[in-house]
Design a protein that fits this description.
The chain is of the alpha+beta class. Helix content is about 30%, strand content about 30%. It has a domain at about 5-130: Aminopeptidase. It has five helices and eight strands; from the N terminus they run ββαααβββαβαββ.
Amino acid sequence: MSSVELKTERTLIRTPRPADAGLLMDYYSTNREHLAKWEPNRDADFYTHKYWERWIGEVRESAEAGTTCHFVAFSPADDLERVAGVCNLTNISRGVFQACIMGYSIGAVYSGRGLMREIVSEVVTYAFNTLELHRVMANHMPENERSARVLADLGFQREGLAQSYLKIGGRWRDHILTAKINPRHL
C-alpha cells in the first residue's frame, strides 16, 4: 500500500512516514495523562523516538500486507508539526468478513472541537470506498461519552457489551461494541 493522504475541511490525515517518529513520540508524551484512562499501560520505551521509528516500520509492513491502515491527523490551521489525533484500522479481514476494528484518539488541546468526528468520518469513508470493507467496528468503554457520541453521530450501531474486553489502565474493562455497515452493501 502506498502512502495515503486524506483531507477534510479542517484536517489533513495521512499514513505515517518515517519522519513522523518524533511527532508521534511528542503526541503520546504530551497527551500521556489525557489518554491514560482510555489506553493500556505503557512502558517507558513507548515514549522514545526509537520505539516510534520501529513502530512506523512495522505498520508500513502490515499496511503492505493489507492487515492494517494507520493514520496520523493534523489540523493545518493550527500546526502541521503537531499531531492532532490518530485513527487506525486494524485486524483487517478479507474473505467472507470484509471488516476491521477502528481505534482513535485526539490530543487534549484539540478535544471538544469536533475534529475527532471529522477524522473518524473520513477514515470510515476510506475504509468503505477505497478498501471496500463491508463493516467497521469500533468499541468504547461505557463511561467514554464523547466517543459514544462520535460513533452514534456517524451512524455506528450498538451491538452489545463485551465484559472484560480490554486491559486498560491495568484493569480489564468492559466495552460497548458498535459497528457501521457500508451503506453500499445494504
